[in-house]
Amino acid sequence: MNECILILDFGGQYKELISRTTRSLNVYSEIKSNKIPATEVKELNPKGIILTGGPNSVYLENSPKCDPAIFELGIPVLGICYGMQLMCHTLGGRVEPCDVGEYGRTETNIIGNSALMHDIKSNPKMLMSHTDQVCELPQGFQRIASTQNCLNAACEDSNRKLYGVQFHPEVEHSDCGREIMRNFLFIICGASGNYHLEDYIEKSINTIRQKVGTKRVLLGLSGGVDSSVCAALLSKAIGEQLTCIFVDHGLMRLDEGDSIENIFSKKKLNFIRVNAAERFLRKLKGIKKPEQKRKIIGEEFVRVFEEESRKLGDIEFLAQGTIYPDIIESGGELGDTIKSHHNVGGLPDNLAFEGVVEPLSGLFKDEVRIIGKMLGLPNALVNRQPFPGPGLAIRITGEVTQKKLDLLRKANHIVCREIENLRKKPQQYFAVLTDTRSVGVKGDYRTCDYVVAVRAVETSDFMTCEYTPLPHKILQRISSRITGEIKQVSRVVYDITGKPPATVEWE
Asked: Catalytic residue among 81, 150, 230, 244, which?
């Protein structure tokens, strides 16, 4: 794996999508801090550098910068959004607030014959999200794209191989965005495309063996895609050194705990089931805030692992199925916290393990599924509906109770059964029990019962999504069944919000 694209992080929420896109084009990429010195970049000898977007304004004193010498290394650079503004600002251009900000898909006029825009159709719609723009280009640069409200929507200094785009080519909602990324990687950087996920498996196995040695590892196995693939990868790397514990926190979907036990107790794994539903409910009593629920569940998970590991003797490492979206949404040095994940922000400081092993932390959900298939896991498991670590606790707004859990399990089961009958199914679908009570009529009686929300989305990366326009016939049947079969529900609504501005989950 000799070729590499360095992605310098300036706090943009799409930085992992940039990495995912490069790797999907068979070019390996690594995300590095914006503070990396040019001398270190030169030693790494990347084929190219991509500067990410970010929430700041480059002209402010405390905004994140990069080593200016990076632009003098002769290595091709692509600046995206904030990255373009930073490059132009650093090299003598002028960046100012926009008179009119641009958000969403915006028609873009391609100018000239830039290698970056090779074979790009005229007037593609690209995803814009900015309130600043480059008003004056640095010396040696020329404009290669514009929009109605952004004169310099893309620019280049082809002699120095420096390129910038104000839009986001890494997201699915940009027309020809993938082609622009391909042009940068192969035409401008000269990459050969020699990276494949098989390499990731081999590298991960070697890394796990080097880190763990002959010591034992404890994995919290939920039965979801991430933890299952993590178990398969760890099993291949260290075999019987791995013990998998399924903590049934009582927040699973209908009959899910029994199903997980039935599958994994028959595998060649050290499988232990811990029934801890009452314990988790006690901890969650009276808790209404989403972040508090996530933190509590995360800490209880770890405490249960510690207790079980003590029963098993010396187990030095805790393994987790953490993936890239978990990390970016939990925030970082520059990024805002969207929501803490139990396996990222929820880990307590006094962790009773020597270390943590996270072999999937560089992968996106679709890549995890591919890895799972390569490792021989069945399709039914690899293609399983995504389910958050905190379970139904974050699909219940407000306090979590046994009564609410039972109600939501029934509603979610109805939603899943009805949608699964469709020929073309969304990538993810589920029910949410809101904390809203709505007036209704059942029989001759006036009611004031719960409102259930239905969520179904189209996404390949789980960093962005659009709602699925389900047929009204299906929605009507879902509503009729939920309100008819669950007496505590008087109303069903359908969530038609994309991500952003919403997240896939409600909490």
From this structure: 81
Question: Where would I find the H helices in 111-184?
Answer: 177-182
Residue ranges and CATH numbers for the domains of the chain are: 5-188 (3.40.50.880), 197-382 (3.40.50.620), 395-494 (3.30.300.10)
Q: What angle do CA 20, 25, 27 make, to 5 degrees?
A: 80
- Strand, coil or helix: what is 218? strand
Question: Backbone phi, then psi, for 475, in 5-degree steps?
Answer: -60, -40
Continuous segment of H or E residues that includes residue 20: helix 15-24
Does residue 202 carry a catalytic annotation? Answer: no
> What whole-number distance in Å separates Cα of residue 319 and Cα of residue 356?
6
- Residue 62: DSSP 8-state: T
Quick one: which of 247, 242, 306 has its CA closest to 274? 247
SS3 206: helix
**168, 249, 341, 342: the active-site residue:** 168
What does the alpha-carbon distance between residue 14 and residue 52 come to, in Å, rounded to a whole number?
Answer: 8
Residue 281: which H helix or E strand, with range?
Answer: helix 277-284
Question: Tokens standing for 263?
Answer: 């599958």
Active site residue 413: no
φ and ψ at residue 312, rounded to 5 degrees = -85, -10
256 CB-near residues (< 8 Å, 6+ apart): 223
Cα–Cα distance measured from residue 192 to residue 351, given in angstroms and rounded to the nearest whole number: 43
The total of other beta-carbon atoms located within 10 Å of residue 471's CB is 10
Question: Pick the catalytic residue: 3, 156, 170, 418?
Answer: 170
Contact 52, 85 (CB under 8 A): no
**Average pLDDT for runs of 10 along the chain of length 507:** 88 86 91 94 97 94 95 97 97 92 88 94 88 95 94 96 95 89 97 89 94 92 88 90 92 90 79 95 96 94 83 88 72 47 46 84 86 88 84 96 97 96 91 93 80 92 84 96 95 94 91
Catalytic-residue membership of 341: no
